[in-house]
Amino acid sequence: MTQLFSVPDRVKQGSTSPIQTPDQYREHYLRAAADPDQYWLEQAKARVKWKKEPTLGLAGDYHGVAEEPISWFSDGTLNLTETCLDEHLKERAEKTAIIWEADEPGHSKTLTYRELHSEVCRFANALRELGLQKGERAIIYMGMVPEAAIAMLACARLGAIHSVVFGGFSAEALRDRVRDCGAKIVITQNEGRRGGKPLALKTVVDQALTDEHVVKHVVVFKRTDTEVEFEEGRDVWWHDAVSGVSDSCEAVECAAEDPLFILYTSGSTGKPKGLVHTTAGYLTYTSYTHEIVFDLREEDVYACVADVGWVTGHSYIVYGPLANGATTLMFESTPLYPDAGRYWNLVEQHKVTIFYTAPTAIRALAAQGDQFVKGHDRSSLRVLGTVGEPINPDAWRWYYDVVGEGRCNIVDTWWQTETGGICLTPIAPVTETAPGSATLPLPGIFPVLLDGDAHVIRGPGQGKLCMAHPWPGQARTVWEDHDRYVATYFSTYPGYYFTGDGGCIDEQGYVYIMGRIDDVIIVSGHNLSTGSIEEAVASHPAVAECAVFGVKDELRTQVPIGLLVLKCGVETDPVTIVSEVVALVREKVGPVANFKQVAITKRLPKTRSGKILRSALRKLADGVDFPVPSTIDDPAILEEIRIDLQGLGYA
Ligand code: PRX
Fold first, then answer.
1. Which residues contact ligand 1 via a Cβ below 6 A?
2. Which long-range contacts (CB under 8 A, 24 or more apart) does 631-634 make?
């Protein structure tokens, strides 16, 4: 039987969240199950500043999604920034909206809601001057500076669609995204800073824009004194663009279902999917989940140390917290710079009450020893969150005992880029937690496990995690590729949203996530497709074929391994080929892939119909016993590969 951790009583005091007791959770869950439309309409009306209030809840369903994307609140109109900014000018104008902690320790600055509102309006006016209009796309390729959030909100002010690309992606990855969404404007920095090192953001943008594209302007925020090249007529400094510009800007009226942003995520194949999140449902859902899961209070200092390049940064650094009028912290650095006490220094300095990070960081910090944590005052902390991958019970216990001193609530939040917001999670002051479990669904979320025959597993069991009913925060489509959206999420189990994860449910209904069951791997909390790494590897002229797959790693969850088969007659030294292949992946996918482990092998294990047996490769590398696949063409290959993998320290 799992050990359950109950909730200290003091956390139930002073919160405004509507769900603060197990009874309230049950009541909300049942109400949302009985009438999801009504439940979410109530939330949408209470949380969103509408221009025209909606009367409709959900339209469409998972069966009909191929013909018609689902929609929520579709007769309403709004501008999202009025909820996140203008509304707060009434009572919170001088409240800190954003605390920025720079890469350099000891450097920070704050923006009040009034200041943030002005900056957003000014930058929105500047973007409009540069020609950006409602429905057009802007790519944001920046580090963790407040200007990244300002740029996102400024696009939303105009009804333009932003697509943030993580600063660790390469020029090629950026180029693909710029092209796929047809971006008119790219917003970047001359240089980023991370872990004491520079990030050459503008140089990467220049490399990305060498081929054909429709980008008219590149706006460059000056973060450091480093000089960068400027292309006459195309490039413009942020400070010049906003100089003398009015800080009042009309909030463009948008339909509830107008796209708010596109966020690219890895798929089973190399081409990233541009998931589209729309405006009102996403706003309702991020506001709802942020308040309820973290037990938000007016005086909280909330710190999510993710990057705005990922969905966690969108939903729980920018949109959810700002919709709720919270003080949200943006952190530019890494957990290990200048040492493993950086997060706890952040907590001490800014009196952080809610802290949200990923298991990979928790594991890396636990490995450094407790003294880095204990050297800092953490008495302000109340809620500790984790997201991005399964958290192993040891790391969970360390977070609970050492970081939280046994008095903070841990929320292990399961969700995805596709889900828009948290779906399975403890609710901080309500749910008894169990290390390693994301526990229970939020109201309005109806998870099911399906077995191999697509039957719903009733009671405890293990299967494929699906959702039985839409919720407002769910992505609506893949940018200009609705067929791919339908094929990826709705064709495996008709009538359900298929998450791509395996899961397990215990006797008390607690969900344990077992990880991805497709070719997506999670490296240090970043979701990557083995397909995109394979494409990069295969582009090397000496490579005949290759397989890339994830192998378990204690700190990073998984790391990618590449097996290469060389073309006949290749005379180049294998060591050179391996280092060139590693460099190619760095160039085409980016350092984020952490691709270092490569072996050259004679042949790859395949089915008789020629498909590479990736799951067999994964199991071999993880050292797991498995029956030889019945479809394998030549079982002897497995033994050859085992020896190659042992050369890399696996199998
Ligand atoms: O496999 C699950 C894992 O991360 C995947 C989603 O990745 P991404 O779209 O990049 O979004 C990450 C941040 C929301 C999921 O399919 N995952 C996320 N949170 C958890 C998790 N696995 C286990 N436990 C979690 N709490």
1. 265, 311-312, 387-390, 412-417, 438, 499-501, 513, 515-516, 522, 527
2. 631/607, 632/605, 632/606, 632/607, 632/608, 633/605, 633/606, 633/607, 633/608, 634/605
